[in-house]
Automatic annotation (TrEMBL):
<dbReference type="InterPro" id="IPR050855">
    <property type="entry name" value="NDM-1-like"/>
</dbReference>
<dbReference type="InterPro" id="IPR036866">
    <property type="entry name" value="RibonucZ/Hydroxyglut_hydro"/>
</dbReference>
<dbReference type="InterPro" id="IPR001279">
    <property type="entry name" value="Metallo-B-lactamas"/>
</dbReference>
<protein>
    <submittedName>
        <fullName>MBL fold metallo-hydrolase</fullName>
    </submittedName>
</protein>
<feature type="domain" description="Metallo-beta-lactamase">
    <location>
        <begin position="19"/>
        <end position="223"/>
    </location>
</feature>
<dbReference type="Pfam" id="PF00753">
    <property type="entry name" value="Lactamase_B"/>
</dbReference>
Length: 229
């Protein structure tokens, strides 16, 4: 049983970037992927999983920490190609993922367009278009704060702020936590991800402190990678 990070390198606006989806491997070698990257990232993530010695037929679950295009962009593609996977998300975020309710992020992005300075307008329009293009998919397992999943190995921790239903995954026996966007690795510290995009900055600060107070040795950040304490 272990967690590994999957560094996914890509180029955006002429700059090199990297995100770090996480992969939990159970005692019986079943795989759980946490977050799926942008749209069309499925082949990149597949390559990383295979490079680490696993097969895609071992993939049992995909957990979504929250509804943002860099976290759910390829979720639909995963479900189409691997229909056996169990999609897990918080009860709040599941309503956006399934398309029952327009996502908070899209509402925020559309509202921000009205007041964006001219120099940022092109990016703002592009961002709204990206969010509108996301394909919806049903969530198989809806979770809430304190729920225990993955054969009792993982505890769900509600970490709202970045979005309302954001979740963090705590693995006590591995002394590890997977933070999504509730915490970002910045050198040897943890900070809030994109404060100007946070839907509630006070909640985001409280969630960050909640993560910092966990008794863990390894912190897996989607942005910045693994932090060893």
């Amino acid at each position: 049983m272990k967690i590994i990070e999957l560094p996914i390198e890509f180029e955006f606006n002429g700059q090199k970037n990297c995100i770090y989806p996480s992969l939990f491997i159970s005692n019986n070698d079943e795989l759980t992927l946490v977050d799926t990257g942008y749209a069309n990232f499925l082949p990149l993530i597949e390559n990383e999983i295979i490079k680490n010695g696993y097969e895609m037929k071992q993939l049992k679950n995909v957990i979504v920490t929250h509804y943002d295009d860099d976290h759910i962009g390829s979720l639909y593609d995963f479900k189409v190609k691997y229909p056996q996977i169990n999609i897990i998300a918080s009860e709040i975020e599941s309503t956006y993922i399934s398309g029952e309710i327009k996502s908070e992020r899209l509402v925020q992005a559309e509202d921000m367009l009205e007041n964006l300075p001219k120099k940022d307008l092109e990016f703002g329009i592009w961002f709204v278009q990206q969010l509108r293009k996301l394909k919806h998919v049903a969530v198989d397992e809806k979770v809430n704060d304190g729920d225990i999943i993955l054969d009792s190995k993982c505890k769900i921790i509600a970490t709202p702020g970045h979005t309302s239903g954001h979740i963090t995954l705590y693995f006590p026996s591995l002394k590890s936590v997977i933070t999504g966007d509730a915490a970002v690795k910045n050198y040897d510290d943890l900070i809030i991800a994109n404060p100007h995009f946070c839907l509630d900055i006070k909640q985001a600060e409280q969630s960050l402190n909640k993560i910092k107070n966990l008794k863990v040795k390894y912190i897996y950040c989607y942005h910045g990678g693994k932090l060893t304490l």
